[in-house]
Amino acid sequence: MVQQLSNNKMKFSVTIIFLIVLANGFAQTKNIKVYVFAAEECPVSIYMTKSLATISDSYKNNADFYLVFPLKSSTGKTANNFKTKNKLTNFFITVDAKQTLTKKLGAKITPEVVVANEADSVLYRGRINDAYLAPGKRRHIYSNNDLADALALITAQKQVPVPWKPAVGCYITFNKK
């Protein structure tokens, strides 16, 4: 009788601990989405991957990160190769060949970042950093980490000052209707 009671207490304790862990997981749901519009062959997209990996490591507990591939030529295989080759382990992949998400969020350049809340209201749109002055004109040392600064403000529940610096990179060619 004593042994059975102890087993029941242990099962009850394990159940309570599981429910607490489960509840804490739900309490910490991420309500920030970081969409990075990228192209597999865009030199600026490729260059920015190291910064993106660092930023996603810093904010992976606060935001979900998505690599969005808006080109008709992108496939799950090419997108996954880009993610793997560039060590973007914290990112989900979205192939947006029909450009529905791209148009919805207003992206026009790769790499361009859109940070949104749960309702897809845009909290920040623009560049990752100021490493590129223009396509093909890269700085060796850059000083502004726009995406990291924006995420720091957003996670502190502050507004990102406008105007946002526009992204520099490769233009997205939109599909004809």
Structure description:
By secondary structure, the protein is of the alpha/beta class. Helices cover 38% and strands 21% of the residues. It contains six helices and nine strands. The protein has helices spanning 2-27, 43-47, 49-59, 76-85, 100-105, 146-155, and strands at residues 32-37, 63-69, 91-95, 109-110, 112-116, 122-126, 132-134, 137-138, 170-171. A hairpin with a 5-residue loop joins strand 5 (112-116) and strand 6 (122-126). The chain is globular.
Q: Give the helix level as a range of percent.
A: 25-40%
Q: What pattern of helices and strands is seen along the backbone? A: HEHHEHEHEEEEEHE
By helix and strand content, what is the structural category? Answer: alpha/beta
Residue windows where pLDDT falls under 50 for at least 5 positions: 1-28
SSE layout and pairing:
Layout: H1 2-27, E1 32-37, H2 43-47, H3 49-59, E2 63-69, H4 76-85, E3 91-95, H5 100-105, E4 109-110, E5 112-116, E6 122-126, E7 132-134, E8 137-138, H6 146-155, E9 170-171
Keywords for this entry:
two-stranded antiparallel sheet, globular, disordered N terminus
In short:
With 177 residues, the protein is of the alpha/beta class. The protein is 38% helix and 21% strand.
